[in-house]
């Protein structure tokens, strides 16, 4: 069975690879619908609060009021220089590629899985009218894709991947 929980966070980002308004620094109120696969044990499966106890601090310390940034974006170096010069720290969620909603979904699906949950799907709402629905199959396919692009040997049965390298600065 599935338990669906909803969360939200606010974050800035840009997509430096696009030649349109998305290359400007801007923000979103990201809405999340996380579909957890659970199994009944007696009368219940998982206490709803057990999800919040892990997911809320994860969102707060990694994403909320932070900035999603591609480590290859020249702006990243500028922000690191700023930190070095002023001692002021920003919450940065560093991606290995563009901070698209697709890449965000892959990172979040991987990290929430590492926290010990089994996800069926993750819905990431980026704007009032646009939501990405990211399924377990999408995640398995992306893991193969990212394993290949980083030169690792991929295994078709493999469902888990290396931790996406994203460090909080
Ligand atoms: Zn955007």
UniProtKB/TrEMBL annotation:
Cofactors (names)? Zn(2+)
Going by the UniProt record, its keywords in alphabetical order are: Lyase, Metal-binding, Zinc
The pathway that the record names for this protein is: Purine metabolism; 7-cyano-7-deazaguanine biosynthesis
Give the EC number(s) under which this enzyme is classified: 4.1.2.50
Q: What molecular function does GO assign, one term?
A: 6-carboxytetrahydropterin synthase activity
* Taxonomic superkingdom: Bacteria
Cite the residue spans of the region called Disordered. Answer: 146-169
Q: Provide the reaction this enzyme catalyses.
A: 7,8-dihydroneopterin 3'-triphosphate + H2O = 6-carboxy-5,6,7,8-tetrahydropterin + triphosphate + acetaldehyde + 2 H(+)
Q: Tell me the protein family, please.
A: Belongs to the PTPS family. QueD subfamily.
> What's the protein name?
6-carboxy-5,6,7,8-tetrahydropterin synthase
Record organism: Fuerstiella marisgermanici
């Amino acid at each position: 069975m599935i338990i669906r929980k909803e969360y939200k966070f606010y974050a800035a980002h840009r997509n430096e690879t696009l030649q349109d308004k998305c290359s400007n620094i801007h923000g979103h109120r990201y809405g999340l619908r996380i579909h957890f696969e659970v199994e009944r044990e007696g009368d219940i499966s998982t206490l709803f609060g057990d999800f919040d106890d892990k997911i809320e601090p994860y969102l707060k310390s990694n994403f909320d009021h932070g900035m999603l940034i591609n480590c290859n974006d020249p702006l990243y170096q500028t922000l690191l220089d700023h930190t070095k010069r002023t001692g002021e720290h920003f919450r940065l969620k560093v991606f290995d590629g563009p901070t698209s909603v697709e890449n965000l979904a892959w990172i979040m699906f991987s990290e929430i899985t590492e926290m010990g949950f089994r996800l069926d799907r993750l819905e990431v709402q980026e704007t009032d009218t646009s939501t990405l629905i990211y399924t377990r199959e999408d995640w398995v396919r992306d893991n193969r894709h990212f394993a290949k692009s980083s030169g690792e040997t991929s295994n078709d049965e493999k469902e888990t991947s290396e931790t996406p390298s994203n460090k909080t600065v």
